[in-house]
Amino acid sequence: MPNIAALLKSEITRVARKEIRAEIESLRKAVSAQRSAIAALKREIAEVRKVASKGGQAPKVEASPGDAAEAGIQRRFSPSRLAAHRQRIGLSAAQYGALVGVTGQSIYKYEQGKARPHAATVRKLSELKERSKAQILAGLQEG
Fold this sequence. Notes:
This protein has helices at 4-53, 65-71, 79-89, 93-100, 104-112, 119-130, 133-142. The protein is mostly helical and 143 residues long.
């Protein structure tokens, strides 16, 4: 007959290790995110030092006139609003994605919040929301 105390001790050890692994996983993710943030801050500091060493003048960036208009506009993305707009128009995710230039699967992931669109895609989505249903349907038939 096995020793009950030894079995109990081994079971407690096993459960404790399992719990510790679960806690450590979330800490690993947090540390990874913090390391990424630190690296980004270090890059930013290096850039600021570089500008400061040149006499405090920021580097000039050439921009096209279209970029100037887009740069001032902050666009926000909302998964629920994307889903509501697509349903209001009555398009499938594949059709909606074709209008924006992404796949239907991407649209589903955007709506569920599992993925975030790039800035260019957010801009296309907002432009699509500004158009009327008739214009959107006409654009779908063209493409």
